[in-house]
Amino acid sequence: MSEPLLVIGNGMAAAKLCEELAARALGRYAVAVIGAEPHLAYNRVLLSEVLAGHMRAEEAQMKPAAWWREKGVTLQYGTPAAAIDRAAREVVLQDGRRLPYAKLVLATGSHPIRLPLKGMDLEGVHTFRDLKDVEALLAAAAVRGTRAVVIGGGLLGLEAAVGLAGAGVETTLVHLMDRLMERQLDATAAQLLKQAVEARGVDVQLQAASEAIEGEAHVTGLRLKDGRVIPADLVVVACGVVPNADLARAAGLEVKRGTLVDDTLSTSDPDIFAIGECAEHRGIAYGLVAPAYDQARVLARRLAGEDARYEGSVVATNLKVSGVPVFSAGDVAGGAGTEDIVLTDRGLNLYRRLIVRDGLLAGAVLFGDSADGLFYLDLITTRTPIAAMRADLAFGRDAVAAAA
Questions:
Q1: Of 82, 96, 186, 390, which is most buried by a Cβ count within 10 Å?
Q2: CA separation (Å) from 343 to 121, 206, 402?
Q3: pTM greater than the 0.90 cutoff
Q4: Percentages helix, strand, coil for the chain, rounded to the nearest 5?
Q5: Where are the beta strands (DSSP E) in 238-315?
Q6: What would the pLDDT profile of 153-168 be if each residue is shown by its tens digit?
Q7: d(CA 226, CA 207)
Q8: What is d(CA 147, CA 123) in angstroms, rounded to the nearest whole number?
């Protein structure tokens, strides 16, 4: 008999885990996936494309329904998990049903951050995290003359702002810091990104601290700490996410910021695992797709009987704004003990900065052409000495290969 394996969460991490399990241990487990949203697993990275009207929601699906059936995965979506009964080794669904498990994987994702601002409960205030949010924003955007303010200049905020502008909404993006995506980009790349976002019709306001959301029953604007009020019929809070460790915490598992896992991706209960945005490994809760996929691959190997270990991920960001690719990986801050290799071509709107430490590539920032992003990421991850290729490194993989 196949062991019952339950996966709580029907997002990108869960879909990747099921894909890897199907390739490595098909038939070993009776896999069931429990999802709170009434949809098949979809690619959250594409939500801005759905919001902008560039694709239909169905096109963002990770796998068609037939794929799940072919792999023998039972889908239970639209009914959230309410509790984990560790003593009985069962998951209790919101409708009262109880599903047994031999192994349990938490892939519960994250919650969007809601700022402690006056007016956050007004009609017209939204987050940008799932298809339900996109549907609400599209309904608001359909009203002629709608004005929107997006709070947050990170990846989520940029996606929301560009998506709304693409839907024809007059959009302002406000960000507390002095540059966009300050954790991923240096000042030069961030300025180029700002110009690309503004070219899409988004008004970008930097070093703008939010004070309160104005309005009686419905939003009328966002008041900043400097006294300015930006008129708005719609306010989107996109200031990041926090791991969704609610079920784990209630079940008595060890939780800090996220559900704690070791290098085997086990929680404090050896039969319960966690991957993706809900997991915290070695003090890091990544909140990104690539580490979630790394974790899914390692866990699938372990569940298939291999002695695989997860030792962390090099954080990389890859996006496209206004048709312009942007990529960053590793240490982009630089500083003492590092050297920079910089390639700039204003005519081609091209910028590359490679950060070198102790003869190794430590970080990379690319704007305008990210085709070599994975090449640089591999050099960073494998700690490959770059002395022999340094003269050609800024020109990418092909130049390095030709010189060799």
A1: 186
A2: 47, 26, 19
A3: yes
A4: 30, 30, 40
A5: 241-243, 259-261, 272-274, 279-281
A6: 998 899 999 999 999 9
A7: 10
A8: 14
